[in-house]
Amino acid sequence: MKIYSFVGSMEYEEQQYPLSLQQLLLRDSKLRNTDYVFGVVIFTGHDTKVIQNSTDPPSKRRKVEKKMDRVIYFMFCILFLMAVVGSIFFGFTTKDDLDNGVMKRWYLRPDDSTIFFDPKRAPAAAIYHCLTALMLYGFFIPISLYVSIEIVKVLQSIFINQDIHMYYEDADKPAHARTSNLNEELGQVDTILSDKTGTLTCNSMEFIKCSIAGVAYGRGVTEVERTMSRKNGPALIDNLGESPDRNVPIKGFNFTDERIMNGKWVNETNADIIKKFFRLLAICHTAIPEVDEETGNVSYETESPDESAFVIAAREIGFEFYKRTQTSLSMYELDPVSGDKIERTYKLLNVLEFNSSRKRMSVIVKDEKGKILLLCKGADSVMFERLAKDGREFEEKTSEHVHEYADAGLRTLILAYRELDENQYKEFDSKFSQAKNSVSEDRDTLIEEVSDKIERNLILLGATAVEDKLQNGVPNCIDKLAQAGIKIWVLTGDKMETAINIGFSCSLLRQGMKQIIIHLETQEIQSLEKAGDKVAIAKASRESIRYQISEAAQQLTASKGTPQQAFALIVDGKSLTYALEDNTKNMFLDLAVRCASVICCRSSPKQKALVTRLVKSGTGKTTLAIGDGANDVGMLQEADIGVGISGVEGMQAVMSSDIAIAQFRYLERLLLVHGHWCYRRISSMICYFFYKNITFGFTLFLYEVYASFSGQPAYNDWFLSLYNVLFSSLPVIALGVFDQDVSSRYCLRFPMLYQEGVQNVLFSWRRILSWMLNGFISAIIIFFFCTKAMEIQAFDEKGRTAGRDILGATMFTCVVWVVNLQMALAINYFTLIQHILIWGSIALWYLFLIAYGAMSPSFSKNAYKVFIETLAPSPSFWIITVFVAITTLIPYFTFSAIQMRFFPMYHEMVQWIRHEGKTNDPEFVAMVRQVSLRPTTVGPTARLAAKDNDLRDSVTNHG
Amino acid sequence: MDLDGGNLSTVTTGVQAIPIRSTRHGALYQFTQQNLPACKPVLTPATVITTFLLMGFIFIPVGFITLRASISVVEIVDRYDIDCVPEEFRNNKVAYIKDDSLTKNCSRFLKVLKPMRAPIYIYYQLDNYYQNHRRYVKSRSDQQLLHGLGYNDTSSCKPLESSHDLPVVPCGLIAWSLFNDTYTFSRGPTELKVNRKNIAWKSDRDQKYGKHVYPFNFQNGTLIGGGKLDPSIPLSDQEDLIVWMRTAALPSFRKLYGKIEEDLDADDVIVVHLKNNYNTYSFGGKKKLVLSTSSWLGGKNDFLGVANLFVGSFCILISIVFLLLHVKNPRPYGDTTYLSWNRKIVAS
């Protein structure tokens, strides 16, 4: 778990050397300016970070499947009940047949019977009968449902794989459903746990804006601005869109401003400061330039991508840094007046390095004129307090700009400088080298103290804003997902500041949202850390975390009265360690669930997995994890659904994922369209399956009532066995594969539809039981109408009466008609395929009856020529079929008509809108859609709404 | 209903425009993109009301037609199982029916209330008789009926597979329990001719019962069940047996006995001479004699007509109620209190 520290020692020639993180080369490290190093490979195999952080992949089982199991148990109970009731009746009637040697139903020869019908052993006969009945009513347990579901899921997966809207053309990568098992789970996701780097962002930084001398420069449009403007209205897009004459985009540079570009900066009022600003960018860094010998182009190798963004920015403006030696930095400066390149070399005196507590870095250089300069860049929180009294000229403006940039999710740095005279420097240098050379434990502290003293009285130049480039379409996607009511948690290994920046740029955070930050950077703990008492640290940390969580929970409770207030929870990795401990984790989860967004930074892969597990088991809702790197594997495996991004970071994530997509933005379509459809399809399919089997099975039971429960089925054996295979299964599969309540367009326009899956309204017990009830009602109507209509009288003009064969075939015809027509009524999407399968199934039954009846009587038994000779020529057969089939559907039809008209479900409202062609009426659509915004919703739309609210509030307050 | 297909997203979904491909309108493309042209029915009030009205307007006339057919049938039903037992045996009917020494002759007088046109079908009706009992239904051998003694595997016929160590043709409980009451009819002094041919289905006579299979060793056991068969007539001509062997679906059933091919006038009195042989007394069944004409729809049964009329009127009623509700209530657009998740939020 300790990925940020390393402690070791090396014995060499009987002397011990301490080893720390500095001596450790991590995987992917490159050797520069050094010919070779000696090294020992450590942490290999099972000791690698990946393995150490891996968790055992749990087996994933779907919620719908689990519920289906419970439905099956329920059905089994009904089945058993029916069998037992039948057996009891059967036992009594059988016993009754032989009364002291006197036969009652003599035609059954009860005196000379087998065990199955023996009145002398009636209890045994009843038990055997129970087994027969279980077999006979076995239709209540739809075995073929499992097979059908498997078929349907494979086909659904093919649709996901084939979707052109999830095909990433640049990398030639389609979506890939690696298991077909979780399709409908995609429609029930409650929480998304997302990795940041490579998933939300591209891991590339772009210099996009800057504020120099209190003037904001940079016309580049950030992703946030673009999204927000799109939400405001489509007209703005064109104005804000990138200027068409942009040259080939330069990686890391997305800055356009005609006031500065192409040397125009000399005409600005503060040209001098602008020059200093970019010079600082060109010098104050640790980048190493690489000159391409053929083209003369310079590229940079840097510790972090934002640093290279600065150097590149300076280069593009005309301050091209091209050479670094141990003691000097060289750059070309473009003289805007003459257009010549002037070479400048600075003597590098000292580098005061960046670390997370200092939050700044400085270089001390001597320019060609011998002037000593301290150039410093750092976070606003530490920089503003270090400015000199006369260096605060632009402070107010700059800080305003910085605030704006931060809100847009940009990473900001303040640039400032200071001139040192010779004496000052000498004093510093001696102290500094002394501190550097000390071998005591508090060497770092000493260095820090010395640096701290020199980095004062700075003169402010301005601020930079770097955009951590989001992947294409991420804010929009997040907006849709948030509107769909899905909670999004970001789990990242990055620093807290970065994570918060991304939170802003993804609109997961916004101004006015209360940030609850849980961390362990308190003085108390830091001092304990210095003391090094591990037990005490753990104890103090634990207490601190508990305190912070309960404090935050109180805040949340207190704010319940003000519905507009949204909270965001930000936790760092160290705190997470304690928050995830058994006795605090429920408190933590409780708090997190009540917050609008949750960001966990500095978290290790194992912590990601643990958080995922906590959400999954703690809330009982479906979780989806999405990530692209090896560090996300644990999370992907732990979540109900793991989505891997098949990006640049290798294949580990994809290999352990359930579904692989090429871009984060495809998640929108994957969930809102495919997830919604699949969930809908599978749940309707299961409900329908139970319906159709109950309809069929219950007619068998009702017939038993009239056959003294002897176990004689109403239908020919072949009818029984082919019912599920031929006459009713194909339309169900079509339902499972093709049905759409609304088209993909509307799924995306009305993301609230997705909540039907999250709330599981389509597979609730109420719905399942309603369908079952429908089945029982249908069976009762079919049975009684058929038997009453055929009763005892002549069946046709020739005076012959209807026997078992005729009643059976007629009833079966009715059942086939009813279940198929019911299907036609229930589906919302009638393509040619549905028509073929539904009407085909009915036609197939008649064809089967003809074909089967044409076979020899020894095979076809009582169905011999039953259609051609008896049923077809008789008008009463046809009238009964049509009448019974339609009448049976009236209850369902009435019910759904009333529901559709008076109590429409959300998808039915959307269907109304589509049907009435009101999709282009914005007011109307907004009315249906309004519900999708709640105060806790995040995303650009919600952000805009919150902004409007704030404006309105401030207007009312002032007025 | 509206047709909506092939129309790709024009909404700003963040999905980039996809280059137009030549396969765009191909059926396979539409199939894989789940974008096939489709009919998307919506249950609008107009559809619902029209459908109900339509059903009503179809069912009501059909109801009238079928009811008329049923009413046109003239039927005389006479229960005789009690009246044909002499007074002294009324308390022990089973003993009476089992006593072979007694003659079971009985006469019934049936008054024709409405004129009946030929052919008049004669049925016997049994109640509480489980011809659909599993043991009973299975107790036959179709192969033997077709091939006679040449077919040996008649285990399904147990316990009436053989008697006196000789196979029985036709074997099984069904044949053994053959109905054996007989009827003769006369109007005044003249006897009415009863045609007992062509009462079974043709396919049964031709393909299920052998033309050269003769009854053998039938009703020869210790326990005599029902009727006997003439051993000189092949099974395919024993139409009584064929009708009886086609088992009934429900415990009350009629079977065709024969046809009277003369018209009967109103107020005619038919005298029936019957032999009351068949034992329904031990299980409390009833026996009835039925004379009935037929219509194009079959025999007399008002159910289909009445049900049609009832369902038809019900449909019209629903459509009216629905119409009224529809006019009175505005449609709940945007009123999302119906959404279950909103309900949940309100509740909490």
Please describe the topology of this protein.
The complex is a heterodimer of chains A (959) and B (348).
Chain A: E1 8-12, E2 15-19, H1 49-52, H2 63-96, E3 98-99, E4 102-103, H3 122-136, H4 143-162, E5 176-177, E6 189-194, E7 201-212, E8 215-217, H5 223-232, H6 235-240, H7 271-283, E9 288-291, E10 298-301, H8 305-317, E11 319-324, E12 328-334, E13 341-352, E14 360-366, E15 372-378, H9 380-383, H10 395-407, E16 410-420, H11 422-437, H12 443-454, E17 459-470, H13 474-483, E18 487-491, H14 496-505, E19 514-518, H15 523-531, H16 534-558, E20 567-572, H17 573-579, H18 582-594, E21 597-601, H19 605-619, E22 622-627, H20 633-638, E23 641-645, H21 652-655, E24 659-661, H22 666-705, H23 717-727, H24 729-738, H25 744-749, H26 755-758, H27 765-790, H28 804-826, H29 832-854, H30 857-860, H31 866-871, H32 875-902, H33 906-915, H34 922-929, H35 940-958
Parallel strand pairs in A: 6-18, 6-22, 18-21, 19-20, 20-21, 22-23, 23-24
Antiparallel strand pairs in A: 1-2, 3-4, 5-24, 7-8, 7-17, 9-10, 11-12, 12-13, 13-14, 14-15, 15-16, 16-17
Helix pairs in contact in A: 2-3, 2-22, 4-22, 4-24, 5-35, 7-8, 11-12, 13-22, 15-16, 16-18, 22-24, 22-27, 22-28, 24-29, 27-28, 27-32, 28-29, 28-32
Chain B: E1 2-3, H1 27-32, E2 39-40, H2 45-72, E3 75-79, H3 93-98, E4 105-111, E5 120-127, H4 134-138, H5 142-147, E6 162-163, E7 166-167, H6 173-176, E8 182-187, E9 190-192, E10 194-195, H7 202-208, H8 239-245, E11 253-260, E12 269-275, E13 286-292, H9 303-328, H10 340-347
Antiparallel strand pairs in B: 1-2, 3-13, 4-12, 5-11, 5-13, 6-7, 8-9, 8-12, 10-11
Helix pairs in contact in B: 2-9
Transmembrane segments (chain B): 46-67, 303-325
Main location (chain B): membrane
InterPro entries (chain B): CDC50/LEM3_fam
